[in-house]
Amino acid sequence: MKNILFTFVIGLLSLGTYAQDIISEQFGHLEDRDEATQIEITGKLFSLATHIENTGDKEADQVLDFVSTIKHFKALAFEKLETAESEYKKGLSALKGVHEELMVIRSPEGSFSLYVDESNGIVHELVGIGTDNEAFGVFSLIGNMDLKQIGKFAAEIQMEGFDKMEKIKDYNVSEVKVYPNPVSTSETFTLQTSEELVGAVATMYDESGRAVKEINVDDTLINIRTNDLSSGIYYVDISTDAVSVKKKLIVID
């Protein structure tokens, strides 16, 4: 299956075109540098997946169906960039204003963050940005994509730039939810996590970044009272040593 998908994606890479996007807006000053590696693929090219006949492999067909929901992909990467750390921080600052943090992946080699524009389980844009203090990379994936399928897609396409998205599948991030949302100050909300995140610590932060509540994640379903919270926007950060997953919660009077 991977050979089929790899051949398909490589074919797309040879036909990329350019359009304005968050990468051009925030990192346009880096795009003309000789050492930059750039990839851009349009929705028309992704739609070619719908014309591939049944491969006879169920998993391959599922991934090709997912590919057809993608409208645009763009990536910019440097093996060595003297301003890698500052570009990473600048990118995070810009993303926080337009997207929600989905996941942070930590390792001895560096940090990688995923931000998402998502509603009802459908991802309209996924942005990944990372650095190891020397290398730097950022990508944008736009479409109407199933969050559950993004990690699976990344696991099948063995290409640099997709590998970090496998963590979405590894930790079943699509299972992480807070509900009801909004929730009243006199009610209880439920934090739902995946089995892979049991043992993590969930910290609630208000909009100013102040920690207001800490919960040990000892089950996949935890009920949390809000009677000690004021109305406002909060973020529930579920963290392990390797990753953190964040969800926004709105508390109303």
Brief summary:
This protein is an alpha+beta fold and 253 residues long.
Describe the structure.
The protein is α+β, with helices and mostly antiparallel strands and 253 residues long. The protein folds into 2 domains: 169 residues, no CATH class; 79 residues, Immunoglobulin-like. The protein is 24% helix and 39% strand. It has 7 helices and 14 strands. Strands 1, 2, 3, 4, 5, 6, 8, 10, 11, 13 and 14 form an 11-stranded mixed sheet that branches. It has a 3-stranded antiparallel sheet with strand order 7-9-12, with no helix packed on it. The longest helix is centred in the middle third of the chain and has 13 residues. It is globular, with a radius of gyration of 19 Å. It starts with a helix and ends with a strand. The N terminus is likely disordered.
**Shape descriptor:** globular
Gyration radius, rounded: 19 Å
Q: Output the structural class.
A: alpha+beta
User: What percentage of the residues does DSSP assign to strands (E)?
Assistant: 35-45%
Strand count, sense and barrel status of the largest sheet are: 11 strands, mixed
What is the share of helical residues?
Answer: 10-25%
Mean pLDDT value: 83
DSSP E strands, number: 14
Distance separating the two termini: 52 Å
Q: Spans with pLDDT under 50 lasting ≥5 residues?
A: 1-19
Order of helices and strands: HHEHHEHEEEEHHEEEEEEEE
Task: Give me the number of helical elements.
Answer: 7
Task: Give the number of domains.
Answer: 2
